[in-house]
Write a structure and sequence with these properties.
There is one protein chain. The protein contains 10 helices and 16 strands. It has 501 residues and is of the alpha+beta class. The strands form 6 sheets. Strands 10-9-8-11 form a 4-stranded mixed β-sheet, with helices on one face. The protein starts with 18 loop residues before the first helix and ends in a 10-residue tail after the last strand.
Amino acid sequence: MRSIQPLRSHPLCRKKVSFFSILSLCLAKNFFLDAIYDQGSRRLFSLYAKALEAEDEETEEEPHPDPNDENHPGMIYVGRKDDDGRRVGFDVDNGIKYIFGTSFDSTHKDILESDLHHEHYGPDSEHDLPDRSRGKTREQVLHEKRIGKLDLSKGPKPFGWFEEHPLDGGAVPPRVVHVEPFFIDEAPVTNKEFGKFVRATYYETEAEKFGWSFVLSSFLPNAETLETAEVDPEAEDWVATDKAYWRNPEGPGTSYKYRENHPVVHVSHRDAAEYCKWVGKRLPGEREWEAAARAGHFGPNNRTLYIWGEDNSTEVAKTYANLWGEGAFPWENHAEDGWRATSPVKTFRPNAYGLYDMTGNVWEWMRGGKHKSRIVRGGSYVDSLDGSFNHAATLGARATLHGTTTTGNVGFRCVKAPKRRVEHHYVYENESVGPQLALEDSNGNRRYSNQQQSGHAFSDYGDDDDEFDEDVIHDPTKPRPDEKRGRKKVVKPRTRTSDEL
């Protein structure tokens, strides 16, 4: 072995690293014998230089921001909290698990309370919560799902099928779901707030572009228009009224003045999403919304039918929600709660989280769904308690509308995700990015377009002057040490995403 005396001038020696630490590093990587017999001590320093370079590139992960330090005016935090009422950080699972679905179906009682605390992912997780509660193993559940008999009585279901309860439209049967923590507006967006958005951006709603919107027949200022007006074929009590939009809720001659604190209506799904984007928020997911509406009543034992409990009397309901009441729809509204149509936000009592109008007043647009079948939740002032007409205004109340639908009983509220650490990973230059577009000429020759990003966006990796034996075992997901590949640092996508995206 050559003496290392001439190498004292090497730049690596300035790092004050002992020779024994170099030896231990090389021994850990099984490179020591190759370094001794191939190129001597200079080879040893070259390997250590690579190790130092790799360690410099591996940046330490920053800690997650403390969710207790983040607050937004007019928004409520929904997420796990400890016994002292402080928000749990992102170092552990700080989301919420609860039983999602209709409030009428009693099968949620078959789900044990322990299922809400079980991690539904990993090698020991199972697909069916009731089966796990009965003591079946993961293999038994999968075996039954693969070779079990099919129930052909109800026929095949198309992709994305959602089984709805006939009274409130909620999911059947109820099941355990998980949502990440989030902030949600304590009340629906009002006419005053939406007006600021319109004046600042000169935004034109889709009801203004189309020139009409749906108005309840009993609210029309001129009853003679009912003889020639067009109605919704699926809801004949809603009339297509010309020039009705959020400023003129019942059409020409009406105004939103003196209703500035009422929820904004006659807004489409896109109108709601554009407003949320303007204020730096987004529309809530369906599961997020129901988690906020249930306000801690997540388990099978404390799950309730309404936000106030199980009492279905009008005397109790009128203190919590703006509903139609006991009169015959759509011409008799006795206004037991004090309002025939929309009411100012924060008029009625909030739920346990401090959220207003989670039931009644207006339906609220949700994120996700299909354009022809967008989701709304919460019920509105035209709904009943028991589902005798329209929807039952329960915690599971759910309906779907076309994304361009604008009516006098649909509004929205916004949510915002708390700040989290941005995680990164490396993408290599010749890494597969999916299928390429093939252009075929008149002779049948195909030419593939280069869909990969240009090489200048990647940094060089590896040295050309180092040769490694073929028998050295390396990770196939990473480049070989003797291979020159470019790479770049990109934001790592979230490993867990919500189903309603």
